[in-house]
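User: Predict the complex.
Assistant: Input components as received:
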Amino acid sequence: MKPICQTQVPMHRLLNGSACGQLARSLIAVLAWAQIFAVINGPLAARDVPVSLQLRILATTDIHSNLMDYDYYRDQPDIGVGLVRTASLIKSARAQQPNNILLDAGDLLQGAPLADMAQHRWMTDGGYGIGAIHPDYLAMNRLNYDAATIGNHEFNYGLPYLEATLKGARFPYVSANLVRLDRGRPRNWISPAIILKRRFRDILGRPHLLQIGIIGATPPQIMTWDKDKLTGKIDARDITVSVRENVGRLKSEGADIIIVLAHTGIGPTQTRPMEENVGYQLTKIRGVDAVVLGHSHQVFPSDSYVSVPDADLEQGTINGKPVVMAGYFGSHLGVIDLVLKRIGKRFGVVASHAEARSITKIADGKRVAIVDADPALSKIIEPSHKATIAYAKTPIARTDSRIHTYLALLGDNHAVGLVHDILRSYASQKLRGTNLEGIPLLIAASAFKAGGRYGVTNYTDIGPGPIQVRNVIDLYLYPNTFSIVKVTGAELREWLEMTTRVFEQVDVSKSDPQPLIDLRVPAYNLDVIDGITYTIDVTQPVRYDRNGKIIRSDAHRIRDVLHDGHPVGDDEVFLVGTNNYRAEGGDNFPGLDGSHTVFSWPETIQDIISRDMQAKGDVHARPHQIWQFAPLDAGVHVTFDIPSHETAIASADPRLEKDVELANGMTRYRVNLSRNPPEKPLPDRPAQDR
Ligand code: MN
Ligand code: MG
């Protein structure tokens, strides 16, 4: 018998309630029963033994076209990502348990230079750079995926691209809460759910037909995030309601077990309509046997979820149902093991265990690979890998200075200033001659990559020297389009309040060092709004929660908002250029729900940036003087992490003093915020071949 658990555990530990204990105990019970039968009645009676069958569910999620173990922004290998490495985990997990299926929980087609290369080539010649099938599907077809669901990022390049690209998948897609509309009428599109019929052997080697129901789901927030592309063409409904509707139907069509395959994370336990992250709620639906999640780029089971009620992180369950979420970019493989027993005509789950297997581990403070890349899969991806490297290195322009975001959360930043300049010139040109031309124009931009939970490589870092396509993607990570919203001075102030969620509240009564950045909030929430100046007081509590609800009505972190040197009045009117994501309600910024949008254009901001750079040839990035921290007392110490290899940048900023090197490749600095802004200009890196 093949071991059902990943690790070989001595039998006495199994029986004493280890991670796989429950699972092993029920298997042992069934085997013992079979042996007793065999002794009493002889081997011929084996068909009378209650049938017990193991099933292993393998799952990936949020691959975001990270097929190769390669960082195209830095043009170097990266052991922490890539389906070629996850594939090695898939191979060994399949060898351990031949009764398996392989699923993907979505966010596949966008999010890496390979995806941009494929989409760029599709726009130019209708292929994907390497032929008529998207490289993601070349790889996944080869790995024999059994089913997948649609993530929110699948819509980023528009519906025609998605529909054309999906044709390359030789496995079914499911999403129960999406409807395709054709002139207002629903039409056949992606199946809500399917039944996979698989012939598997039970623990005595006898073959059985197993009917596995799979219900898909996608965050309904796509209708906000890609509103311009989806309005009138897609309708998205509540996830839990749609899943529940399909459970009974699949059961009546003969499903033995039901797996929910949902591009959703684990969010609040109370249920609200159209909630984005409903992993918890899915485990409470009657008839659901296992839940495969994604979207939040986290790992379940893992310590990140200790506070989830009714979660058993040893067993990998929530409310007794096995749940798995496999990180992002191929970092993990989700593995759910089920023991099924035939009860009446159908199989049902009697025991389960879930875990997420990583492609890397930390050893002696360093991240090291656990598995190598699968050579056969790497070979299949090789042509698109090469095409991506060539595409990523296409030269566009030059910069004389280094453009980076290592300090972008500490004040005015040249990378953010560069985006401000380019978008301001684009917007001014577009507004010329319109009836909105006279209204003051502000531009919102942020650093997309500024450290945080994605670690040491998650920074924009360009030049000095040639600027290539990969650098533009590095500077502006998402294929957002450009929108202009019209807001009042009062609304503008609330927008700014929401941006300050990236900062922790600093306790002025404490003399111990305290972190400045709240790592749970994405860095790109710090929209920096060009055209005004303002001060952020981090000693004040945050005013808003992540849903854009006021949690402290007396809290104000934003001070001294000035336009043209005058305090901004509540009734003054401004135009703010931003991206479609923010304008339509991304991250729940107050007042931004699409209703304020006065202009939007279909081309991506990446294209706007590329074209501007190409036209100029020489790029001059400069920080604008926009915002600063309200000075703290000299006795209060806040900390800020910078990659250890960037000591020159840190030592040139007079506010920073080295504290300690951390195990994750970062160095922690104490930041002196008693004076502002830095007295010395930040240096450029000496010229080198990059
Ligand atoms: Mn994702
Ligand atoms: Mg997602």
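The chain has two domains: 11-387, 394-502+522-633.
Let me know if you want any component modeled separately.
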